[in-house]
Design a protein that fits this description.
The structure is a homotrimer of 360-residue chains. The first copy, chain A, has 360 residues and is α+β, with helices and mostly antiparallel strands. The first copy, chain A, has seven helices and 19 strands. In chain A, α3 (169-177) runs antiparallel to α7. The first copy, chain A, starts with 7 loop residues before the first helix and ends in a 6-residue tail after the last helix. The interface between A and B is medium-sized, with 22 and 27 residues. Chains A, B, C: It comes from Muricoccus nepalensis. Chains A, B, C: Keywords: 2Fe-2S, Dioxygenase, Iron, Iron-sulfur, Metal-binding, Oxidoreductase. Chains A, B, C: One of its GO terms (molecular function) is metal ion binding.
């Protein structure tokens, strides 16, 4: 990988251009704001995109919808109110709004005098995710919904995971794409040495490919559950060495696939990082981790608890380190990142170019 | 009430003029800063008015007094010190101040060399309230003490209640005066429909009058305790419909009275909202709820615990909703209120006109 | 002491010049940043000087060293990493740094392409203190290490104490030097009346001398442990009256010595106040309290628990009051201090003149 590194002068400079950690997520995409299972019929759910309060509503009948989470009257959250048919009624003075955000009732006012309502957001429900389009609604129809990996493929079993992480979403993309951070997971994974096998970039995406060799430690059982087999401690020419990991940021989503030689990947991860607060210093992660079922029935189910434990531990280590990065950025007040890996420099440029407005 | 509503254009605009939530309470009035029972002889009590620290002192003999709660020397709170006779002595180096705020002793300094003291506030104790005049002391003598409703009338029993609420005092006034917020209390009160019966306004006050009819649910026992009788589920022509509720903001205080036909009200509430912090985003509420004793002796006492429970629940619902309003204002950074009820628009103008300086 | 006081006009004015509470500690001195016992071999320790994160490292062999606590790559704390030989390796992607802060290894990069490293701080270990020079490293060799009182003298037993205090370091200096604050400790010490016996000032120091007479209360046992004897309730001419206490700020350190007539002090305190956060509104106190061993062997050891308890109580009272001073300054936004004691005015000038840059 050494050969790919730029000359010394270029390496030591900090990135020019606007501070990546202040680049807002581009709102003109579909973002998951909740898991379907979190949104109960008749119980409004308060969520946020980049500080904007949004209420998700699942009526007793009909599709879910999303509105600004405030009553036009006194600004209290509609999520504190009641679902009535296909409308939501504020819990304070009883103003009601339909799924287009129109005010359809004020109990003490004639129907001809109803005031303005609130903003409605385009909303779709796919594969257990409630997706919202927080940007210009006129663009929603022309922006495709995300491809969610192998989640719909019956040959796979999918784990839905994620939680709020206290950092800008860009740290998440960089964390996953730079596999040299295997060092962070040395206690969970043993001493795995990544080898960069080249990358790719194009309209709206950056991709990196790696192989790995184990130079110490034992293969964790959780990892074995992913591959459906135990692996020996790696020699450079071992079969593990030929497993190819492909990580791709296809703005604003990220995927990670592992192929062991067959066509279909043995692991297919789709992940999105949704800014929560206005400063976009927190993100909520929605991950779909699809594992190809091995030939022996029941084996994957048997190994599943181990896989869950293993991925939780990895995810916790990642969360702790990216939160340290955010804390350092907060203290330093600007991005002191000194990146030496060209793939990550490309990724950073992509996130800057595709991102939205600068945040405070 | 429909008829009273202004035309559409006017209704949808936001209020012009300065942001009501940044209008400071006018300091040139008497404000309760503590209950008498909180202020023990010889134990100084630290309180605040709009961020200004004030120490209340009840000497072993003589009237209570109020000073700036800081030593002129090193600025530590005098409330951390000792009451000695009619003076308070700082606990750090022992500087002492009399009830006029004059420095009367520095243990290591001659009496002829005593430094300047601290500010004293006009202070009165009435009906279990310690009232302070935080504005220009020269005006105190000309500003009347508040009339505290029926608290001194032996025909009434009074509950003293209140706590700190995390919002600007103006939300409190609006909450109480707009009885359409009965919808908020639907679980406590059943389905009560308010009917606006007209209002009044004049020099320093706004008043609104309502009747109510019950269209569902049962009369709560706590409410029965207030009226001294059970009421049937209301029909528009029932006796309950004739009960008249009058709510009045007489700046800076608020009252709510219920009359059932007799001259003396069956319920007489006096309430004040005192800003605590400098930004006036928190207020401490002091309420005197006077209930007319029914003819049967002991009945009110028997029902008192129910009344306490009932009013606490109502107050908690109100507190939660006004704190949501404040949180929305904090997030929105300005007042997006869209008021359709003329009485509340008048009330808002009164609070703006009578209020003090703008706060940050 | 009266005679020493300036005329009234001068006394009532507030200090001119820059706000003392915003004067940063001068970084061109040696500051203790940790106790030796806190820094274990192979376990990096994260500390701060005025907001700057510093990692202290004790290799398995060789002297301790101090670096900026951030990896040059992604800015995460090096203190989260691993000590390897005489280097520290970042826990994220494995970049390693030597004791001079040079980057000596990036696992996925050739040795000829290593990026810039991080700043190293001059560092010494003396008498159980890890001392760091946070200012211009070129000056470190010419600035003497602090003289730590009688800590190295076998005739003394030393207690190492201290903790974080939520105030600017200047409050600590003023607290200790103004012995009129004995009033604060009246519950611990009884009624001790200090008498100012003159002072001294010169290049980089201010000194004050006091005697004391007990006018009430009993001598605490902890105090007796310091003097190695019980004292009667003081009469002005008692022997206690002749004990001389000398308090000296020798920038940036402070000492307090008590002499009972012999040459060597019976008590010899050395203390430093190290700013922790960037605003320097918190300090960590490092104190060395050396007590001269009395002639009877074992007596000091027997009384030691009492001395510990006594000094902890005194220190807690001091901590509470200086944190109140800081809170008052935060609320007032500037220094309203009204000092009447010339020694303290001199001390304040010294701290202002010797201090570093103004902090926010």
């Amino acid at each position: 990988m050494d050969q790919a590194m730029p000359a010394v002068e270029a390496r030591h400079g900090r990135d020019p251009g606007r501070d990546l950690r202040r680049v807002g997520a581009n709102p003109n995409h579909w973002y998951p704001l909740a898991w379907s299972r979190e949104l109960k019929p008749g119980k409004p759910l308060a969520v946020r995109f980049a500080g904007d309060p949004i209420v998700l509503v699942r009526p007793k009948e009909g599709p879910v919808f999303a509105l600004e989470d405030r009553c036009a009257h006194r600004q209290v959250p509609l999520s504190n109110g009641l679902v009535e048919g296909c409308a939501i009624r504020c819990g304070y003075h009883g103003w009601a709004y339909n799924d287009a955000g129109q005010c359809v009732d004020v109990p003490y006012l004639g129907k001809d005098k109803l005031p303005n309502g609130v903003r409605a957001y385009p909303c779709r429900e796919v594969e257990g995710l409630v997706l919202v389009f927080p940007g210009d609604p006129a663009l929603a129809a022309s922006v495709p919904l995300p491809l969610l990996g192998s989640v719909a493929d019956p040959r796979y079993k999918t784990r839905r995971f994620g939680r709020e992480v206290g950092c800008h979403y860009s740290f998440m993309h960089e964390n996953l794409m730079d596999m040299n951070h295997q060092f962070l997971h040395r206690k969970q994974m043993g001493n795995m040495v990544p080898r960069y096998r080249g990358g790719d970039q194009g309209e709206g995406f950056v991709e990196a490919r790696y192989t790995f060799s184990r130079v110490g430690g034992k293969q964790p059982l959780g990892e074995a559950a992913i591959f459906g087999q135990r692996r020996p401690v790696g020699k450079p020419s071992s079969s593990a060495e030929k497993d190819l990991m492909t990580i791709r940021t296809e703005y604003p989503y990220q995927t990670l696939r592992i192929r062991t030689g067959e066509d279909a990947p043995v692991m297919d991860l789709w992940i999105a990082y949704v800014p929560v607060d206005a400063a976009q210093r927190r993100n909520r992660t929605f991950g779909l981790l699809s594992i190809k079922r091995p030939k022996i029935p029941g084996l994957l189910e048997a190994g599943w608890p181990l896989l869950v434990l293993f991925t939780e531990r990895i995810f916790r280590e990642d969360r702790e380190i990216v939160e340290m990065e955010q804390a350092a950025h907060d203290a330093q007040g600007e991005d002191w990142n000194q990146e030496v890996f060209p793939v990550i420099r490309n990724l950073r440029n992509l996130l800057r170019e595709r991102g939205g407005a600068t945040v405070a």
